[in-house]
Amino acid sequence: MTVAVQMLGPVIALVAWSLVMWIWMYVARLPAIRASGMKLDPEAPRGTQMATLPPRVRWKADNFNHLMEQPQVFYAVAIVLALLGVDSPASLALAWAYVVLRVIHSLFQALVNTIPIRFVLFVASNVPLFALTAIAAIELLKRSQL
Fold it and tell me: What is the pTM of this model?
């Protein structure tokens, strides 16, 4: 299997992790809703009812939402690298580094949530993302000049 095809491994791994966080969010949220006696109101402004849940419950949902935001850029650039057939072990290592850092970020946010440390983890995860984007851009420029 080429490195370009292997680039899809980190994509699938992060999607799988996002699904784990989705399950964890509901495993935490549903009992908390029941315990609070909350009556779900479809007319309540978005987020107001969930904001009444304990922070440790909300952190899982916050992280799930984060996994639906910035990692979309990772998915796009990783798939572009695979489609371009970029056969770079460095790109593959950067992709796995991004996934590992996002998983660490998720665990930290869901369990501890000290914002300065979480921010450092978020920034650190962006380093491989910037590098992957640069690799993809350079590769595309090289190919467009042929």
Answer: 0.93
Looking up tokens 């992280």 gives 63
Which of 1.25.40.10, 1.20.120.550, 1.10.1040.50, 3.40.1190.10 would CATH assign to domain 3-144?
1.20.120.550
pLDDT at position 146: 59
Q: Could you tell me the CA-to-CA distances from 15 to 19, 67, 71 in Å, in that order?
A: 6, 9, 9
Closest to 30 measured CA to CA, from 61, 64, 67: 61
Contact 132, 102 (CB under 8 A): no
Q: What share of the chain is helix, strand, coil (3-state, %, to 5)?
A: 80, 0, 20
| pLDDT digit string, tens, across residues 91-124 | 999 999 999 999 999 999 999 999 999 999 999 9
pLDDT given at position 46:
86
